[in-house]
Amino acid sequence: MKCPIIFLFFFILLSTKAANQASSAFMSIEAQESKVEKIAKAIRRNYWRSGHEDVSSHEFFVTKAALDEHTTVSNYENSLASDEVAQLYKCHYSRSCELYQVNVGGSYWGGYGTSAHFVLLYTKSGKHFEISHITYAE
So what's the pLDDT on residue 80? Predict the structure, then answer.
């Protein structure tokens, strides 16, 4: 009777330890890129559903130089708020957050517009957060 109880105890102990190890691992670069591609696809789908045509996107990893350049340009249709810029830099300097950008463009009702969607991807949990703004509209 003691043998099955001891075996069950060790099985539960090892299962708990294995579950804890898996959650502390960072996402691989391939997993990050795959997740960002899925997010970009969802953004494009939302544009199509809202009536945009010829929707296209381009996603890329954001470097410090690219972030500095994007946050200092002031001729966007809608600029980022200061708290949003702070969140972008906080993610950039964080060890468990990677910053990607998805640029989306499309035509609508005879005009054309583009928007920038920053994806703050938390590599331990796999969760993401988006900060978006319109960069051009005509």
Answer: 93
Give yes or no for residue 11 having a pLDDT over 70. Answer: no
Q: How far apart are CA 61 and CA 108, in angstroms?
A: 28
Q: Is 9 helix (H, G, I), strand (E, B) or coil?
A: helix
Local structure of residue 25 (DSSP, 8 states): S
Q: What are phi and psi of 60, to 5 degrees?
A: -155, 160
pLDDT tens by residue, 56-111: 999 999 999 999 999 998 888 999 999 999 999 999 999 999 999 999 999 988 88
What residue type is 31 in one-letter code? A
pTM equals 0.79
Pairing status of strand 128-137 against strand 111-122:
antiparallel
State the virtual CA torsion across 26, 93, 120, 17 in degrees, nearest 10: 20
Six token digits for residue 33? 């890129």
What's the CA gap between 110 and 35, in Å, rounded?
Answer: 32
Question: Concatenated DSSP letters for 55-107?
Answer: EEEEEEEPPHHHHHHHHH---SSSPPPHHHHHHHHHHHH-TTEEEEEEEEEEE
